[in-house]
Design brief:
This protein has 70 residues and is mainly alpha-helical. Helices cover 50% and strands 0% of the residues. It is elongated. It starts with a helix and ends in a 26-residue tail after the last helix.
């Protein structure tokens, strides 16, 4: 999760520059902010690419039903 938050650092820097010192963002910079924002949104979504390396949540169904007793 820390790596994912680290990816947002340039976005935060650009937004602070925009708000605090009145920096003007070019069209490619705005496009980059949108792309990074969408990528971060996909990464933090449940079941997204970042979830592939996480252990299953407590109470989540297991992949195999053969191990359960009836």
């Amino acid at each position: 999760m820390a790596v994912t938050l680290g990816l947002a650092e340039p976005v935060v820097a650009a937004l602070l520059a925009l708000v605090v010192i009145g920096e003007r963002l070019s069209a490619p910079a705005i496009g980059g902010l949108i792309v990074v924002g969408l990528a971060l949104a996909i990464l933090v979504m449940p079941g997204g690419p970042a979830a592939a390396g996480r252990p299953p949540r407590a109470g989540a169904p297991r992949g195999s039903t053969a191990a359960t007793r009836h």
